[in-house]
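Dear support,

We are seeing what looks like truncated structure output for some complexes. This example has two components. We would appreciate it if you could run it in full and send us the complete token output so we can diff it against ours.
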Amino acid sequence: MARNTYDYDLIVIGSGAGGSVAADIVARAGKKVAIIEKDLLGGECPNWGCIPSKALLHAANIYASTKDSQKFGIRIPTVSYNYLSIRAWKDLAIKRTGASGSERYYRSQDISVFNGTAHFLSPHEITVNRRHLSAAHFLIATGSTWAMPDVAGLGKVQYLTARTALDLNRPPKSIVILGGGTIGCEFAEFFSVFGAKVTILDIAPRVLSGEDEETSSVVEDFLHTKRGATIYTKAKAISAINDGPMIKVTYLRGGDQHTVKAEKLLIATGKTPQTDIGLENAGVEYSHKGIDVDQHLQTSASHIFAAGDVLGTNMYTHVGVYESRIVANNILHKSKATTDYKAVPRVTYSMPEVASVGMTEADCLRRDLHIKKAVAPLNIISRSNVTDIRDGFCKVITDTSGHILGATVVGPHAGEMIHELTLAIQHGLTAQQVANTLHAFPSWSEIVRVACGKIKV
Amino acid sequence: MKTYVVEPREHTSVEFDPIMLHGSITEACLTVRSYEGEAHLTAQHVCKAVIAWLAGRTEVTRRDIRRVATNALTVYHPEAAYLYENERNII
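Here is the complete output from our reference environment:
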């Protein structure tokens, strides 16, 4: 594949989900591969993303449900926690992923590992720590970084990001979270369980604004009534200053200026692709939204591919892995694989858990699609009765012939239940076909059957 | 950490020289009739932005420097930025 003049067949920039899978597959096919990582091997997800945050949320859920167990006749005189031990649990979860030991694995697969920042010098050449490496193909999987909102004085206050918030020595007494998306809601849930007074400031009209309205309203209601969080939507933060030991955040809402003080400030306003690696020198076209690719994940330079968060579209680990596999196939084989994003599951591990797949109702309206929809509240199924968990629902959206276009599940284990609907969308099943499938009684999945059964064609 | 400016075609590299950059930015500003003091001040700001961008990078190309400097200069002096970006194409 590679001409003799190149050092490698493939150089992968970034060792996260978008990069590591392709490196592994291509190396197994006998090609010469190098992987470059500027931070920790494994990238964001195992080191400072999904894994540590979900480990912390798991501890928070246990703490919250233990405190709430009296109604089931369980008496626990005092429920307390040791935050440093919770952190140690999170560190153990990270260690178990094996990301830190992946260098040994890569070397066993004959993959060269370079630690440093990669920068393109020309279309086939990059520099890492002043070492020039050339390759026949490149895969850019540099991921994304936290987007900083335009807030005056932000540089002068010690704010937290979703990465630094994982390593606090104790939960803050109060915290302002800028952004009510997935990350903002998950941290709001986590800190509020441990007693923090949480204030969410979101510029959008509702939290989780990418999801259906019903979802936002359940999550907002839960955070407010059960966790005591204060949520200000349509609120634009304009400045942040130190005020003694506190941080004072000024925001605009409804044309008026307001302030809120808290011990900590967390920035969770989204992520932006990391494209500053000299792409101009390689002839790769990109914008602030991410690298432009075709359906084969090829960039404007045909020998350079991109996958994962750097594309700026579906910033999920599972999508990164999926794209990485496609890139590996397209490098190794002449028959090109193409991407298909019609059934990408999205999960917010808040309480209640939120999971969705396919199109939302708003997406359908934007496309002028004629749809049918059905919503089944969680409290009508038996599992809800026996566990006393009432908040949640399942919503199914179909076309006029009953084929499922999108679905949302809000409730316990929603992240597991959504895969039934993901499969249905991926393979063009109708709601009736899902409703006619046996669902165990009494399971949470019954809610999917009930919602699908409500769709009448 | 030192940063080197690479010329990929010639396989040569030289250490990044902020004084040289300062000089060329000043020159671009003076060409579009900036006051001398203003030109030096603008060049200072642009150099600062470029040096901040270079932090953590060991090697970049001349084109990278020109691109980053142009972006920074556009904020202070769009005309000078245009001239700086296109000086090789302007006869």
